TrEMBL record:
This is Dinitrogenase iron-molybdenum cofactor. Coiled coil: none annotated. It comes from Anaerotalea alkaliphila. Residues 10-96 form the Dinitrogenase iron-molybdenum cofactor biosynthesis domain. It comes from the Bacteria. InterPro entries: Di-Nase_FeMo-co_biosynth, DiNase_FeMo-co_biosyn_sf, MTH1175_dom. Pfam families: Nitro_FeMo-Co (PF02579). CDD domains: MTH1175 (cd00851). PANTHER family: DINITROGENASE IRON-MOLYBDENUM COFACTOR PROTEIN-RELATED, IRON-MOLYBDENUM PROTEIN.
Amino acid sequence: MKIAVASEKDMVTGHFGHCENFHIFEAQDAEIVASSSIPNPGHKPGFLPNYLNELGVNVIISGGMGGGAVDIFNEKGIQVVTGAKGQAKAAAEMFLQGMLKSSGAVCRDHSHGDPGAGCGK
C-alpha cells in the first residue's frame, strides 16, 4: 500500500493542492517499510490526483481538499482522508492503525490566511 501525505516540509498541509511536497509512505502489514518525499509538481485542476494515481498511491491524506480533487480520487479508487494535522509520518501511522478517520473537509475558499490551518470551509 502506498500512502501520500500532502505536506509542508514534515507537517500535514491545510490544503492538498497548494502543498510544498508529498511524503510517500509504503506500508506492508500495517508497518511503514519505505518513505520518500517528492516536490509538488504544480497545482492545475485535475492534475495532481492523476499524477498520484500514476505513482500507485492508494490513500491520500491532507488537512483539506477541493471537491474536484476528491471526485477524481474517488473515481480512481484512491481513499481520501481529510482533516489530518501534525507530522506527516504520524498521520500515516495513525491511518495504518485505524486511528485516522476522514473529517470530510472540503475546501471551498482558496484564499487561506493561515497556511497551516485546515480547510473545511
